[in-house]
Design goal:
The protein is α+β, with helices and mostly antiparallel strands. It has 11 helices and 13 strands. It has helices spanning 3-6, 12-18, 22-78, 130-134, 176-211, 213-226, 251-306, 314-344, 356-370, 391-407, 466-476; strands spanning 104-109, 112-119, 125-127, 146-150, 154-162, 167-174, 352-355, 375-379, 386-389, 414-421, 425-432, 480-486, 489-497. Helix 7 (251-306) runs antiparallel to helix 8 and helix 8 packs parallel to helix 11.
Amino acid sequence: MPERLRGRLPDPTRNRLAGVPLRTRLVVASIVLLAVVCLVVGGVSLLLLRSYLLEQRDEQLAGAEQRAAAAYSHELEDRDDDEDIDENAVPDFLDAPGQAVGTLSARIVDGQVLQAGLLDPDGVPRRIGGAAAAALLAVPTDGEPYTLDIERVGDYRLIAEERPDDVVLVTGLPLDELDGIVGRLARVVGIVALAGLILTGVASAVLVRLSLRPLRRVAGTAVRVSRLRLDRGEVAVAERVPAGDTDPRTEVGQVGAALNRMIEHVAAALGARQASETQLRQFLADASHELRTPLAAIRGYAELAGRSTEPVPPDVAHALRRVSSQTERMTSLVEDMLLLARIDAGRPLAREPVDLSQLVVDAVSDAHAAGPDHRWTLALPGDAVTVVGDAARLGQVLANLLANARVHTPSGTTVRAELGKGSGEVMMAVLDDGPGIPAELLPRVFGRFARGDSSRSRAAGSTGLGLAIAHAVVVAHGGTISVDSVPGCTAFVVRLPADS
């Protein structure tokens, strides 16, 4: 794999470790570090002990070799030159005074082991032959000690030295006692290290848990703040990290203090936002309320002038009709703005049982009267569907959705209103087979004064607040509203909590 590509691919090991809690990683790290330390200290200790014991064994081997050499010298003095060596016997110098149990001696002549034996645990010389004796030929004759694993005999420390008569004498001492001491110490070190690792793991888990308790409190504060609804309305962020967890001398204290400062900044920003929204909503409510009277007067005067018995020039009559039409539109806009301002201000809605089945039937009937050039269909369940809410506002939601489909689709479009009940919720949907909503408009279709393009041509004027009002009313009822649109199918779906 090229190096430039390898660096871009995700590391699966890193992804797995990222999900491991910090306390677990700290405990595992401490145990691994202690295990490495125990392994190094134990290994070095065993090596040093074995080296020390081997030096002692080499000193003992040197003494055994000297005693064997002295005994061999006496043997040469006592033996006739023409006397043959018994190859089936053990060397005479094996049983030299002072030799320890397990001592090995061998006589090598002309590259052949003529005699080899050792002292068994009872101190009785025992002959060595075959492959075990032949293995002694591998020991260098430089007078230095070597370790050799002799078949069916064991590990031995051996010295081979050539005598003036061209005879090589081999002397050895067993290493089983040395290996036993090192093995017992290794087991003791292993048991002690394992016990230490277990105790360290338990102690580390307790200490890490206690040390991370302030961090968990800080994280708990952050979680509680993250669950607050900060997108609308008056928000009071009362959560703070306790003073004991904001000590700047510690890392956790620095995080806690920084979190408190961030919460204070967020609270200040939310307060400023809330004040600005309250002022704006109050302005819209006051302005809308104040505009209702002059608009009603203008509309009344226009209607009064239109009823005059005096002849009116055609252009004046046309102007009066336009004044009356635009006054009606502006009155609708003012009413919509006043309704949104009241909903944003959190004005409580009515809470009473609402028969949605009858509401849908009435809304579709009104829409059919307003748009006879469209095809209107209904799909209702067999049983009545009810919710708890404001009947007038929910009726306005349906009216706005149906009016949106009527206004923004061409004549002949089929508009279908559906009503259903699921698990714990009620679903209302308005579907049409018109040209659809542009994809770039879908994310902001419920925004205020959102406008589409020519793909949903407007046969009549609108305020641009119908869908915004529908969204606000549905949210105020604890529900959701969504839209999905492609050419030939546009669906607005409202979901409300079912009447339990």
